[in-house]
Amino acid sequence: MSNKLEVGGIEVPGRVWIAPMTGVSDLPFRETATALGAPYVATEMVASAEFARGRPDVVRRAAVGEGLPLTVIQLVGRDIDFMAQGARMAQDAGADIVDLNFGCPAKEVAAGAACGSALMREPDLAEALVAAAVQAVDVPVTVKMRLGWDVDSLNAPDIARRAEAVGAKAITVHGRTRNQFYKGVADWSAVAAVKKAVSVPVLVNGDIVDGDTARLALEQSGADGVMIGRGVYGRPWIAGAIEAALEGRGFAEPQAEERLAIALTHFRRSLSFYGERLGLKMFRKHLASYIEAAPWPETDEARRAARATLCRLEDPAAVEAALRDLWLAGGRLAA
């Protein structure tokens, strides 16, 4: 199997993609993961109506930056006109691919705004939204979805077929229903029905954290590639590691000094992008993840203490100093 995927004329140089994640995949994270080998990192979920209206925080989520070889902007919404306008704005902003979110299970999205995974219950509207986005732009439009709303309505193959018929160029399926949220285990084999239903590339998503799980997900689903979500927390190099595993190449997991350099570079990107005060605040979630993913501290109690100490610091220089102390002392913060 080739390690490249073609999406509507766009060549993605790898088949291990990083999912759009609210509060995670902002521009500083995307720059960091891309520099570490990720071929595809989508933006945070961007609300199409608020994007079209120019709400500053939503526009910031769609920030493209300079030097990224591929930009994927994901839109969420249920208004056809706003979806078309949002897609045009995403293309104008520099998106190479526009992805539509039919998979977010969050209550404020699916129940409150009746979009995201709620659209799995409205196949006609889902199809119309894809058609509107496709007609509005010249770049490829893709779709990310779940298996269905619940176990009694596993309609991902039908929605995928409809999406392809109106012009979608790739489909990603999380192997859970909306009502499962993130409980239980992802059913990769259920994604096989979507693969059989369409001819465009299909990505399998859910519970993929390393080369072994990626390999099993591909085998059980027949998918063309995998998408990594929560497995990337604190490990922005994971796409490159999994790609190497799938190709039978060696990959050296970053050790203490390299992890420190990655975390510090990511932190500085956050400060540069948001400004010092907001940049520090926005980075705290990543900071906690870097500590959680490190091979030390060795106990849960020590990890909690390290997270609590570092995430309370208000001065960027103090954060950098504490990070250096933690990393280079093998996980032991100075008293």
TrEMBL record:
Which residues belong to any copy of the DUS-like FMN-binding domain?
Answer: 18-307
Entry's transmembrane regions:
none
Q: Which reaction does it catalyse?
A: a 5,6-dihydrouridine in tRNA + NAD(+) = a uridine in tRNA + NADH + H(+); a 5,6-dihydrouridine in tRNA + NADP(+) = a uridine in tRNA + NADPH + H(+)
Record keywords, A-Z: Flavoprotein, FMN, NADP, Oxidoreductase, RNA-binding, tRNA processing, tRNA-binding
Which Pfam family, any one of them, does this sequence belong to? Dus
EC no. given is 1.3.1.-
Per its UniProt record, the required cofactor names are: FMN
The record's family statement is: Belongs to the dus family.
Q: What does this protein do?
A: Catalyzes the synthesis of 5,6-dihydrouridine (D), a modified base found in the D-loop of most tRNAs, via the reduction of the C5-C6 double bond in target uridines.
Q: What is this protein called?
A: tRNA-dihydrouridine synthase
Q: What is the source species?
A: Caulobacter segnis
The opening ranks of the lineage are: Bacteria, Pseudomonadati, Pseudomonadota, Alphaproteobacteria, Caulobacterales
Q: Corresponding gene? A: dusB
